[in-house]
Amino acid sequence: MDKSKPLMFIIIALLVILLGAVAFVSFYLFKTIGKNTSETANAASEANTATPVTKLTVDQIEKVPLSSPISTNLLTGDDGVEHYVKINLSIGVNNTDKKESPKMLTSLANNEMVVRDIILGILRNQTYEDLTLPEGQELLKDNIKSKLQDEFNSNLIVQVYISDLAFS
Known about the structure:
The protein is of the alpha+beta class. It is 55% helix and 18% strand. Strands 1, 2, 3 and 4 form a 4-stranded antiparallel β-sheet that branches. It is elongated and about 95 Å long.
């Protein structure tokens, strides 16, 4: 019995140390996770407030039309029928920045093949059903605008205008 008391004391001491370590690690993790979550929320909030969104007038948006319409096949949808689309569109560029806007207009004009490739890639992943939904064309325009902004690393691209859209 005498030998079991020191062993029991050592086991209890180890358990207390282990519980203390678990409590410390848990506290540290919750503190770190909470800090990262609040930093992410603050960063998102700052991003939304850093550049106030003002509605541009039609005259503040320069339209850059594609030189010719784009025709391509669409992804086969639920109806199982192969559909094709012919689309003609223009890219809207914010022209209020007198220094950067001309550069963006030139870049779009000089890189029309890149623009067309991006649009083709997006269209080929759409179904006829996607594009004929009431919100389908707005989603398409938003997707094209977002991909172009990423490719050209610029928020000066503010709109996509569809001037002609035909399906077969």
